[in-house]
Amino acid sequence: MPELARDEQQNSAAARASAHAAEATDGKPRSRWSSHTTFLLASIGSAIGFGNVWRFPMMAYSYGGGAFMLPYLIALFFAAIPMVVLEFALGQRLQRGHVALVAHIAPRWEGLGWATVVGTFLSAQYYQTLLAYCLVYLVNAFRDPQPWAVEEAARSLSESSSSLDGAEASSGLQPGSGEAGGETEADAALAAVRSFWREEVLQVSSGVDETGGLVGPLCGWYALVWAVVCLGACDGASSIGALNKLLMPMPFAVLAAFFARAVTLPGAGAGIRTLFSPDFAAIWSPSIWVAAVSQLFFGVSAGLGTLTTYASFSPPSTPVGRSAIIVSLSNSAFSLFAGGTVFGFLGFISHTTGEPLESLVQSGPALAFQVFPIAMGLMPLPQLWAALFFLMLLNLGISSAVSMTSPLTTALCERFGTTARRVAPPLHLLGFVSGLIYVSRAGTYWLTLSDHFVPMFLTIVVGLSQCLLVSLAYGARRLLESLPPEDQRLAPWWAFCWQWLLPATLSLLLLAQVIHEGSSPFGGFPGWALAVGWVYSLGPLLLVPLFYCAHARAHGGRRGGGVMGAVRAGLELGAVRARARTSSSAVPEVSRVALASNEMSRVAPPVDEDLFSVVVLTESERPGAAPQSEPDHAKGSNEMADG
Predict the structure, then answer these.
(1) Which of 344, 590, 301, 574 is nearest to 458 (CA)?
(2) How far apart are CA 73 and CA 278, in angstroms?
(3) What number of other Cβ atoms are within 10 A of residue 36's Cβ?
(4) DSSP state for residue 440 in the 8-state scheme
(5) Which residue among 62, 173, 215, 502 is least crowded, i.e. fewest CB within 10 A of its CB?
(6) End-to-end CA distance of the chain
(7) How far apart are CA 636 and CA 619, in angstroms?
(8) Residues 484-519: tens digit of each pLDDT
């Protein structure tokens, strides 16, 4: 009999999930991934991007090297993976894009969903700039000599390597016989790389307050990037899946080749040790924990609306726990791999030039665009390796860029009942035009500001809000019981993370970082520029009160709504369920349902009828019975579960 009851409950959960799927699409077939592998590749493609190559190594070094790894690994297992499971579960359970999902759970808080996808789209504007940089380097990679290299200095760098072989000699990187010493020529190579980056690519102005006009060639490449990303977003899951099947395998192979070359160079070991040597005094700073959590959230695309959108294209019966672990571990493994490669080459450059490694580590994408061009000069056939490397960065970047514009595209399609092919072109055109500030001569300053504020604050605020919505307005247990049996084994742990661990941790970290930002302004930027950074990261959250007030006005300010109403109703519902569970098993099921219904009639606001599926099985939920969709009046913020 217990086995029969469990089977009935699982069948009931599957029926309700199917009902939600039909309701979410209003009878229209929802776009689907061609396979579960395609979903995994798309999610990994969203997670692994440009930031793994330059942002992770830079942040790890800036926050104490090996000391950063301890908070990073703790945050991986106690914050990132539970958050990814939450977003996958919500997307699959409700079969909606991120905005429609939030509106279904809590209609008055629909603005939170819009704030998330708008903030993610704004992040895509500066992210596309990095891809434009890649295109500039890719086009110049085939030139001989390459414009970022001084030939005599490149020979000197090759001469300093103790592991030259015949292939390298045939590639033109054999030792030269310049009059100047190796250190002088090596310095010249480093200066040439930096000069090409600042003067040819960025054409950088003197400061953030001097825009200096647009950089013509960079602007053209920026437009091309937006066009490619738009094509990737036009067909929803089908185009995103095909794109990731094509692009994802290449980065691992190319990075492996660079890593194999890096570890053979003199000084590489010292560079890698610098990355992983711990400065344990830094562990006690709240900033390092905020940096670790924000890096992981932004890395795995948590708090951006991407994972919920991607998961909504999967069938409701797909297990989510294993997928979340694979995506999270893939992101972290690639970050560590890229970090070791970058710092291996940094150690070699420091060994060759005599310049302290600390002076070589720069903030922003310069870390990738200055270190790897020198590394390419140490490879046989440097033109080929330069082309492969920048194609790899484009592969990483395009898949992530599509994942950053897709949530807003999907939200608009669901809101207005149209298709991505109609929404994506004007939306991406707007993104291109409004993001031209990033390809001005002051663009690198704005990119640095945006990259600091958005991952540090928006992702954490959104992640915290999602935990509160699930805990107070939807019900962690209700969500977990809708998952496949495979995911039920860790259900108590996920519930604890969503209801207690993540809200408490993210709240404390957010408060600590706000205090830190107030006492130690970022990067020496003027106050007005920092204010713009705050508005850029938190400005989309202004949509939350706007939608809240609009909904309250449209519905006449019904009593019992809002957060406090949700809390009160949740507490009352918890008491009702406790009495239902402790009632004698001899009491007929129909009587227990009637008892619970009578108790619930006094709870305000009204509660979604589907909530009773967690406590008892009604006749309509028996196997073979037609699934019932949720009544419209009972959706959203009035859907309460025991907290």
Answers:
(1) 301
(2) 14
(3) 14
(4) B
(5) 62
(6) 29
(7) 25
(8) 888 888 999 999 999 999 999 999 988 988 888 888
Contact 242, 141 (CB under 8 A): no
pTM recorded for the entire structure: 0.75
Torsion of CA 466, 472, 474, 477, to 10 degrees: 100
What's the Cα-to-Cα distance from 394 to each of 53, 131, 226, 383, 431, rounded to whole Å? 12, 6, 13, 17, 19
Give the whole-angstrom CA distance, residue 126 versus residue 454.
11
Q: Which two tokens stand for residue 48?
A: 């692994």
Q: Within a 13 Å sphere around the CA of 154, how many CA atoms are in the beta-carbon half?
A: 25
Residue type, 148: W
For 88-118, write each residue's pLDDT tens digit. Answer: 999 998 888 889 989 999 999 999 999 999 9
CB 406 within 8 A of CB 428: no
The DSSP code sequence of 22-87 is: HHHTTTSPPP--SSHHHHHHHHHHHHSSHHHHTHHHHHHHHTTBHHHHHHHHHHIIIIIHHHHHHH
> Cα–chain-centroid distance for residue 424?
21
- 3-state SS, 105-170, equals HCHHHHHHHHHHHHHHHHHHHHHHHHHHHHHHHHHHCCCCCCCCCCHHHHHHHHHHCCCCCHHHHH
Contact 550, 618 (CB under 8 A): no
pLDDT (tens digit per residue) in 513-535: 888 888 888 878 898 999 998 88
